Amino acid sequence: MPRLTDITWDEFSAMGLEEKTPYLSRGDDGMTPYHTLFAQQFDRPLLERLCELANRIRFINKSREGAMYLKSVLAHKRAMLYFSQPSSRTFLSHLAACQILGLTTGSVRDAATSSEFKGESNEDSVRTFSSYFDMIIMRSPRQGLAEKMAWELSNSSRPVPILNAGSGKDQHPTQALLDIYTLVRSFETKGGLDGRTVVFCGDLLRGRTVRSLSYLLTRFDGVRQIFVAPRELQVPDDVTAVLDAKGVEYSLSGNLKAAVKEADAVYMTRIQDEWDGTKGESAAIDTTHFKFGAEELALLKSDGVIMHPLPRRDEIALCCDHDPRAMYWRQMRNGMWIRAALIAAVFGCERTIMECGYR
Asked: Are residues 136 and 151 in the same domain?
């Protein structure tokens, strides 16, 4: 298996994402991630394994004895949550996942409370954290930082795994994992995810969750994707280029109601105006017709699902919250379980948990 120690940073950074994947795997099976950086690392067998492991962890955790067992699995490990970009759900979900498995955690959530306030670089901060912790879970507005630090740490005297919890406008692989897990659970008794139609709506240009999930959906057979957005916020060419290369059926649309009629799942997103320049460009875009409310709910299939990575503003009306097809609150909780599964797999505990005596 190739290793990040076998290649220079310039050589690695010049590769395509799928080319990089073998360099990021654990050495024992060549499939399980060591560093988790982007959605391209997850093929269908791995996705199915992680979903099964998440289900197993959920089940074991139902009893006090099971929960105490899980807390012993990684009680000898420590994880650093380095979140230099604002977050509540993603931070707490990873924190809870670590706690389920017994990891001791530390955190930095504001650069003003770290040595970066004194001028320390992101790179030096991460190298510092690697001296004390066995995994670094990081979220940054800086594109490519997680990838760079994965290479840096692999070539250091203390290599530890990096888990990308959001990197600039690029990718958000663990959000995509929880989205897939939610879809798999939603359709597991209804014929599965294959052959479904998934509608993405909102700010598709800057939404890293859309980019990651769109890719993971290509791992399933015959999943059609419909992208509904204002012209200025429509899905970028690099996403559709991947779909073209993989022969995936997709379409671009400005008509949410028409798309909802065809949808098995609707994935709503908010306007990502934190990426605006000083002129507040997003405010000039008419998003009136890209919101999900009572009319859209009436058009959705009886077994369809509504999803959202959260936080939301007004793109999903409150009247939808108590409909059984609204999955966004369950989606959020699912993130804790699938992230626990991923962390357990990274540390080589998958078999231990799957084969333990809890039934």
From this structure: yes
Residue pair 198/225 in contact (Cβ under 8 Å)? The answer is: yes
- Tell me if 69 is assigned to some domain: yes
- Together in a domain, 342 and 302: no
Total domains present in the chain:
2
- Residue carrying structure tokens 């992101």: 122
Q: Which structural domain range is residue 14 located in?
A: 4-171+334-353
In 3-state terms, what secondary structure has residue 196?
Answer: coil
pTM surpassing 0.85?
A: yes
Task: Please tell me the distance from the alpha carbon of residue 312 to that of residue 314, in angstroms, as a whole number.
Answer: 6
CATH of the domain at 63: 3.40.50.1370
* Beta-ladder partners of 197: 224
Torsion on CA atoms 309, 310, 316, 322, rounded to nearest 10: 90
Q: What is the pLDDT of residues 9-67, one digit of tens each?
A: 999 999 999 899 999 998 776 689 999 999 999 999 999 999 999 999 999 999 999 99
**Do residues 148 and 199 both lie within one domain?**
no
Q: Give the catalytic positions in this structure.
A: 89-90, 118, 139, 172
Task: Tell me whether residue 359 is in a domain.
Answer: no
Whether residue 11 is found in the same domain as residue 29: yes
Give the span between the Cα atoms of 163 and 290, in whole angstroms. 33
pLDDT (average), residues 197-224: 92
Is the residue at 358 inside a domain?
A: no
**Contact yes or no for 197/226 (Cβ under 8 A):** yes
pLDDT for 155: 94
CB count within 10 Å of CB 324 equals: 8
56/115 same-domain check: yes
**How many Å from the N-terminal Cα to the C-terminal Cα in the chain?**
36
What region does 252 belong to: left with phi over 0, alpha with psi -120 to 50, or beta?
Answer: beta
Q: What is the DSSP letter of 88?
A: S
**What is the separation of C-alpha 274 from the centre of its chain, rounded to a whole number of angstroms?**
19
pLDDT in tens, 213-233: 999 999 999 999 999 999 889
